[in-house]
Amino acid sequence: MRVCLLLVLAACSLLAAPPKKPAPAASRQARAWLHALTLRERAAQLLMVPCYGDFPNTGTPAFKEFASLVRDLRVGGLIILNRVQYGQVQRADPYQSAAFLNRMQRLARIPLLVGGDFERGASMRMTSTVPYPHLMAYGAANDLDLTRALGAATARESRAMGVQWIFAPDADVNNNPDNPIINIRSFGEDPQLVSAHVRAFIQGAHAETASPVLTTVKHFPGHGDTATDSHIGLGAVTASRERLAEVELPPFQAGIDAGVDSVMTAHLAVQALEPEPVPATVSSNILTGLLRQQMGFQGIVTTDAMDMQGLANMFPPGEAAVRAVEAGADLLLIPRDPRAVVDALVAAVKSGRLTRQSIDRSVLKLLQAKVRVGLQRRRLVNLEAMGDVLNSPADAARAALAAERAVTLVRNEGAALPLKEPATACWFVLAAGRFSMQGRDLMAAVQSRTPKARVTLLDPQLPASEFESLAAGSSSCSTLVAAAYVTAAAYRGNVALAGGYPAFMDRLLASSQPVVFIALGNPYLLRAYPSVAAYLATFSTAPPSEAAAVKAVYGEIAVGGKLPVSIPGLATLGFGVNMEKLR
Questions:
Q1: Which residue from 260, 337, 469, 509 has the fewest beta carbons nearer than 10 Å?
Q2: pLDDT at 493
Q3: Burial classification of residue 580, based on how many CB atoms lie within 10 Å of its CB (0-12 exposed, 13-18 middle, 19 or more buried)
Q4: Rounded to two decimals, what is the model's pTM?
Q5: Does domain 2-17+43-378 bear CATH number 3.90.190.10?
Q6: pLDDT digits over 15-49, tens only?
Q7: Rounded to whole angstroms, what are the CA distances from 371 to 37, 105, 145?
């Protein structure tokens, strides 16, 4: 088995592009920065700590803590996260975020690298930016030009807001239908399709030379074949070495060949590669033996968030950090206790557990990356110029086109779609919760076409009696349309319909009317409701996908998307029913 894997990876590495060599000027600037740092400051440069896209008052403890981490501890970077209130993600305002980043950059003696999980463009974290569909929608549309455009637009919007490091694209192959954390974040389950789109995204992002960014493939060596959310616990991939080489690793090799800047590790135990039951993040067999030596990657290795339970449950913050650096990681992302981590790294060097050369090697990579994106020339954002870049109408049009081309009709018994009598159809919007904004754009789109349409926004925690009343009251409807919003989310643990929704769906299916089921997000929901008359998948909960779904139901667009995943027992990879646009 080992020989087979080595032969496959050796063949891949022969085709890999040579690692990027920094220009002499870049090396000189990076080395000048390095030489000015103490050992403790060098250790701190390996850390990227979270901020939340807001600008706390300078007199608050929150601001003082940020200032201390940047000015005194001298961390190497910040990553923008969203706050969660009432169970819902609150996206940040880009102008407030950029002003805060400017303030932090002024406090930093060496410019900060700022990262963002912009998998579906900056809209994943920011308001007032183009809302893009999830990556699986791009897999369904399977238009590489649209994926390149996503990469390019993400680079432009990111740099306009002060973000230089995009933690995207996701290179996982989602071949486990019950995967609770990857799902529609992946381009699909076919390694070749995923590889092609990973390359295209990186090419698009790197083509924006006026807005240079760092790109990332994640979560190495592949998070697609597990049913555990690594935010909650340590998942395990039990695939053989041969299967890993055939399925999980090709998209990462494609990213390396395309010149990706960084690879993010997974907090997963991969038994075929690491005999110890530890996450890949702290496995030298995986990060050094496989990624560095066999696959030829010489760029930046970053951990996934180190506060996730898949890692944090096993080791204290300092020990986890030392083990990750020992294994081959360069950047420590979101450590739980930054000061304890720096203390542990310094102590490990002084004890001989880590070498100073290994610390310097990683710090130099990060400093050279700062030069590569031009931070030595300009680290501040022009707030007035942001309006020239963010929310571009041309980019929005491309996002809408991707969403429309992604719509896939998996079942259409009795030609239930397009709707024959839209005025007498009843719509039920199965949103995530009462505080969610999901479904409101879809409702508005339906009512703009059929003003008297019965469209009901639901909450999974409604009493059973209310669900029963709604189902009973729909007996006069010609067609029942259920639009379900389900996507992967940290700490949720599954991608199934929540609360009272499953029983409500069963009640609708027990009626005599045809049921049209729209999966806005998780495409595997058909497994639970195989008797629906029509099944439409958008692979995304984003507003462009909502608009595309309504257009498809009304017959305003042709439907030609193909499944980028299989639905076990019901539909094969690449399947899709073509539906012509109504004349």
A1: 469
A2: 63
A3: exposed
A4: 0.94
A5: no
A6: 344 445 555 666 899 999 999 999 999 999 999 99
A7: 16, 15, 29
